[in-house]
Amino acid sequence: MLQRPLLVLLIATCALSSGCGTSRRVLGYVLVPDETEIELGTQLAAQIETQQRLHPNRRLQSYIQRVAAALIPFALEDRPGIHYHVKVLDDPEEINAFAVLGGYLYVYSGLLLIAEDEAEIAGVLAHEIGHIVGRHSANQLAARFGMDLLTSLALGEDLQLLGEIASQLGSARFSRDDEREADTFGVRYTIAAGYDPRGLLRFFEKLNKLETRRRSDLEKLFASHPPTGERIRRIERLIDQYGASGGQNYRTRFVRETAVLRR
Questions:
Q1: Number of folded domains in the chain?
Q2: Is 231 part of any domain?
Q3: Is 76 part of any domain?
Q4: Largest Cα–Cα distance in the chain?
Q5: Structural domain range at position 197
Q6: Where are the alpha helices (DSSP H) in the chain?
Q7: Tell me: the pLDDT tens digits for 91-100?
Q8: How many Å apart are CA 260 and CA 18, to the nearest integer?
Q9: What is the pTM of this model?
Q10: Higher pLDDT, 224 or 36
Q11: Catalytic one of 39, 128, 181, 257
Q12: Residue 231 predicted with pLDDT over 60
């Protein structure tokens, strides 16, 4: 059996190398069991929701949860046993979305304001779900803190450190391999759910255009989800590879359900 320090070293090494997605997930399962990851995610989500404001409109919250619900069954095929929780944070100036280990997803109202249709939001959510399926945050925290500290955090024994980690999740920087894997999952899940997979592509192209005009507003999102030209081209190749033609955008429904944000 591998010793714990060696496991941590292997996960950290794979995080810096290419083609290690499957290996990192396997090692992550050994080091951080699902029950520990889920409990830690629950603790972190509670911290996030004390630090930030959930959007008060229940209809908006329900709508975003329904969009995610169309994607989740396909994610459960790749990683069963996860119960997803999706919520909108109320900050119209923050253009960001992020995943918390264990199945928690957060989308800022500012991101919804710059989207134009439901397919774009589905693409973003599918990408974030991909981070959970890939266990990217769990593997990062395991490499950084080790199992003993993660277990104590999962039990709520260090609220100060939990709060510090929770406040940094929105600007977490994943490796190139993590982002590529999350993009792959994102394209697959949007296609499987019947959405136009170019929604994710359009969203990244939009962020590229906004970068020069709103750099300060987009720093957190670019730190964790850099929409580079290479990445956009790779998503285009994935869409062609899966042979996706068409798919739904649901623009009218999106405009109606998010109207509260533009009042």
A1: 1
A2: yes
A3: yes
A4: 59
A5: 34-42+51-134+171-262
A6: 4-15, 21-31, 34-51, 58-78, 109-114, 118-133, 136-145, 147-154, 159-168, 176-192, 198-211, 215-224, 229-241, 251-257
A7: 999 999 999 9
A8: 43
A9: 0.83
A10: 36
A11: 128
A12: yes
